[in-house]
Write a structure and sequence with these properties.
heterodimer; A: 113 residues; mainly beta; four-stranded antiparallel beta sheet; globular; B: 114 residues; six-stranded mixed beta sheet; five-stranded antiparallel beta sheet; 11 strands; 0% helix
């Protein structure tokens, strides 16, 4: 069964450093998303991406964040100048054009020290 | 924006018993309500979903009910098995926002004892 793949599974970084979280969505999917879950809190929407541009972003997704689809298979989330409060599990998701069903990856646990 | 509340936060049942998880939502315009199961070390996996034009949907041991008037929806698992143990999330989606923008509940840790 096709799945969304995320790497790395764990990332530890120092405050102020830049990190890139990587995702390979399901191959025939056209819509891509990043969500995050801070420990003990709800899973929160960050951004959606379609046709090589951001289609919607939440208030969390400020100038510190950016997304990119550098080639036909990868979808990345870059966090510049990480802060302690960026520590969270980050989930990538994708869907096709035919329905609302979202498929999630296993997540990247980001720890900012 | 939409706010989804989920109860209980933890639920323990004996194998073979039923489990019910309840969610409420705030935006009456929300029209899509998926349920996700998250096992340890894995991402959320869609197990069932329902649209607002349907009151109930069933898939084997899993069913979801929706009450649009009261703005709540529930997940029912019958004949629970130890492998049903996981965190379950409800979510809601509003029309007009980007397809795929889901508003999640906090999750319910379900433990099924053999």
């Amino acid at each position: 069964e096709p799945e969304v793949t995320q790497t790395p599974s764990h990332q530890v970084t120092q405050m102020g450093q830049e990190v890139i979280l990587r995702c390979v969505p399901i191959s025939n999917h056209l819509y891509f998303y990043w969500y995050r879950q801070i420990l003990g809190q709800k899973v929160e929407f960050l951004v959606s991406f379609y046709n090589n541009e951001i289609s919607e972003k939440s208030e969390i997704f400020d100038d510190q964040f950016s997304v990119e689809r550098p080639d036909g298979s990868n979808f990345t989330l870059k966090i510049r100048s990480t802060k302690l409060e960026d520590s969270a599990m980050y989930f990538c998701a994708s869907k096709d054009r035919t329905n609302e069903k979202l498929f999630f990856g296993s997540g990247t646990q980001l720890s900012v020290l | 924006g939409e706010n989804v509340e989920q109860h209980p936060s933890t639920l323990s049942v004996q194998e073979g018993d039923s489990a019910v998880i309840k969610c409420t939502y705030s935006d009456s315009a929300s029209n899509y309500f998926p349920w996700y199961k998250q096992e340890l070390g894995k991402g959320p996996q869609l197990i069932i979903d329902i649209r607002s034009n349907v009151g109930e949907k069933k898939d084997q041991r899993i069913a979801v009910t929706l009450n649009k008037t009261a703005k709540h929806f529930s997940l029912h698992i019958t004949e629970t098995q130890p492998e049903d143990s996981a965190v379950y999330f409800c979510a809601a989606s509003r029309p007009g926002s980007t397809l795929g923008r889901l508003y999640f509940g906090r999750g319910t840790q379900l433990t099924v004892w053999p």
